[in-house]
Design a protein that fits this description.
By secondary structure, this protein is mostly beta strands. The protein has 8 helices and 24 strands. Strands 12, 13, 14, 15, 19, 20 and 24 form a 7-stranded mixed β-sheet that branches. The protein has a 6-stranded mixed β-barrel with strand order 3-4-9-5-8-7. Strands 1-11-10 form a 3-stranded antiparallel β-sheet, with no helix packed on it. β12 (223-224) and β13 form a beta hairpin. The radius of gyration is 21 Å and the shape is globular. It starts with 5 loop residues before the first helix and ends in a 14-residue tail after the last strand.
């Protein structure tokens, strides 16, 4: 829930329960029946990225974008980009849109994908059945990245807080709220690793309760920049293995890994029986797989177990391990010392959690 005064409200009332009593609409109302509620299907790319389609301009030009909670701007590849990361994707052509307006603002982002450079413009942006007018977005001119040429999307739609956006740029979701396009200041994700009828979706303007069972667990945001929260501890078999005095973490829909300090990640690798292997950073044998206890993240008093089936995939002719792309393997537990997933000052984050990983079934949306 994006509420700029959430921290002040919690401090004043000293209880998240008081906050929820005041904002009960998302707990009991079926948002799916609201005309200002929109659901966008997401495609799953190898259990690594989840992306959806948007359109920009008039007549509309369609693009596939990554919905990323650790980013706040919107950018797409443009006709002015000739780097390898651009050549394989669709390009936005501002000359083909009758509603496009150029600005004097420039973009220079260094993030987890590489360096993205370009300029900002304004145009109509449609996602699902919601339309935002005069949305400022960036058109890339340079994309220095080893990842972007390999992914099936042309840009990123950021869902982070305004403090994470380029100065003076209003993020897409904040425009949805300011223009009264959605009735509730809420978005939610349902991320599914299996190909089912109810595939992965992002919900704008509320929560469709048909996508989960039981009740939603609400967690206060500790800093309104990333979706940053306070984590109580990390444990296995009831024994504390990390985050002993509570620690900060962020929920990132654009990152396939659980990142953390080198010492902690190395410890988890050892406890789950991962071993180095040629061509892959770490592999786990099938026999070990059956005896690995879950890694439990305790957040706001609630345990969220991460079981082996949540982070391992079969590698052909090899033991069990997580796959990045054909012929290579990827470690879902990544060591990172005080690094931020996008441009800006180094953030004092101790863990980076991907909300794709969670107790299944049932899967719950991240709000």
């Amino acid at each position: 829930m994006k509420m700029s005064t959430m921290q002040d409200t919690l401090k004043r009332k000293n209880s998240i329960n008081s906050f929820l009593e005041e904002h009960t609409y998302s707990l009991f109302q079926n948002s799916a029946k609201d005309k200002k509620f929109s659901t966008l299907p997401l495609r799953n790319f190898k259990d690594i990225f989840y992306f959806g389609k948007i359109s920009i301009g008039r007549p509309p030009q369609q693009f596939r974008v990554l919905l990323d909670t650790s980013f706040a701007d919107l950018w797409v590849t443009s006709v002015y980009c000739h780097d390898p990361g651009c050549s394989k994707h669709k390009h936005f052509d501002p000359r083909e849109s009758t509603t496009f307006e150029i600005t004097d603002r420039h973009m220079n982002h260094l993030n987890k994908f590489g360096r993205i450079m370009g300029f900002f413009g304004r145009d109509i942006v449609r996602i699902g059945n919601v339309v935002v007018k005069n949305q400022t977005f960036a058109l890339s001119q340079r994309q220095t990245s080893k990842i972007l040429p390999c992914v099936p999307f042309e840009g990123i739609l950021g869902l982070g807080y305004p403090a994470l956006a380029t100065v003076g740029i209003t993020p897409f979701f904040d425009n949805l709220m300011q223009q009264g396009i959605i009735s509730e200041p809420v978005f939610a994700f349902y991320l599914n690793t299996k190909k089912k009828k109810n595939g992965s979706v992002v919900m704008l303007g509320g929560v469709d309760h048909s996508y989960y069972k039981g009740k939603l667990n609400w967690i206060p945001v500790s800093e309104s920049r990333y979706w940053q929260i306070t984590m109580d501890r990390i444990s296995m078999n009831g024994k504390l293995i990390g985050c002993s005095n509570r620690c900060q973490a962020i929920l990132d829909t654009g990152n396939p890994s659980v990142c953390g300090p080198t010492r902690l990640i190395t410890k988890i690798q050892r406890l789950i029986g991962a071993r180095p292997s040629k061509g892959c950073r770490d592999l786990i044998s099938r026999r070990v797989n059956t005896t690995i206890p879950p890694v439990v993240f305790t957040i706001n008093g609630v345990d969220y177990p991460m079981r082996p089936e949540n982070y391992m995939l079969r590698v052909r002719g090899q033991p069990w391990g997580p796959v990045l792309k054909s012929g290579t393997c990827r470690n879902p537990w990544a060591a990172a010392e005080r690094t931020a997933p996008s441009a800006g000052p180094v953030a004092p984050l101790q863990m980076l959690l991907n909300p794709v990983v969670g107790p299944v079934p049932p899967a719950k949306p991240t709000t």
